[in-house]
C-alpha cells in the first residue's frame, strides 16, 4: 500500500490529533486569491477537514477530494453544518478535470502526495485565469531531545529501523 493511503486506516486518530489552521492563514489565502463570495475552491487531499472548515465558514463553494473513505466519513461528520462543501472520494490524479473554473486550489499538508509529474499541470488546467494555488501545512518546530529519544525507542521497537525524524 502506498504510504499516502495509510492515513485512511487511522482517520479518527488523525482527526483528533491534527490541529486546525489559524483564521489568519485562511484570511491571508482568501485575500491573496482575491476571492469573492461565489468563487469555487478545490481542496486536494482534504483529509478529515481541518483546513476545509476555515474556508467553509466563509461560505465559499468547495469541492474537497480525498482518496480515503474513512477520512471522508470523518470529514462529513465535522463539516455536516456546511452545505457549501461537497466531498468526493478520489485522488487528484484520478479526478476528472472536467470541472475547470476554480478560483483557488488549496492543499493543506497534502501536495507532496500528488504525482510530481502532473500536479502543477493539472492544477493549471482547472484553475481560472488568474486563479491561485495555496499549498500550506504545519511546520514542525522540533521535538525536545529527551522526548525524541523515547519516540525513537518506541519506533525502533515497532518498525525496526530509524530514519529521519517524523515530519522532518
UniProtKB/TrEMBL annotation:
One of its GO terms (biological process) is methylation. Keywords: Methyltransferase, Transferase. SUPFAM superfamilies: S-adenosyl-L-methionine-dependent methyltransferases. GO terms for molecular function: methyltransferase activity. It is an enzyme of class 2 (transferase). Its EC number is 2.1.1.-. Residues 41-131 form the Methyltransferase domain. This is Class I SAM-dependent methyltransferase.
Amino acid at each position: 500500500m502506498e504510504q499516502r493511503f495509510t492515513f485512511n486506516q487511522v482517520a479518527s486518530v488523525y482527526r483528533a490529533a491534527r490541529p486546525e489552521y489559524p483564521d489568519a492563514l485562511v484570511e491571508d489565502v482568501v485575500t491573496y486569491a482575491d476571492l469573492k463570495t461565489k468563487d469555487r475552491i478545490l481542496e486536494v487531499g482534504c483529509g478529515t477537514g481541518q483546513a476545509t472548515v476555515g474556508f467553509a465558514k466563509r461560505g465559499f463553494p468547495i469541492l474537497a477530494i480525498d482518496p480515503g473513505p474513512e477520512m471522508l466519513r470523518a470529514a462529513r461528520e465535522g463539516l455536516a453544518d456546511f452545505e457549501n462543501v461537497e466531498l468526493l472520494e478520489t485522488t487528484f490524479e484520478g479526478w476528472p478535470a472536467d470541472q475547470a473554473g476554480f478560483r483557488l486550489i488549496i492543499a493543506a499538508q497534502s501536495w507532496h502526495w500528488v504525482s510530481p509529474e502532473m500536479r502543477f499541470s493539472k492544477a493549471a488546467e482547472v484553475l481560472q485565469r488568474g486563479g491561485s494555488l495555496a499549498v500550506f501545512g504545519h511546520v514542525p518546530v522540533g521535538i525536545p531531545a529527551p522526548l525524541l529519544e523515547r519516540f525513537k525507542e518506541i519506533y525502533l521497537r515497532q518498525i525496526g529501523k530509524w530514519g529521519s525524524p517524523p515530519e522532518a
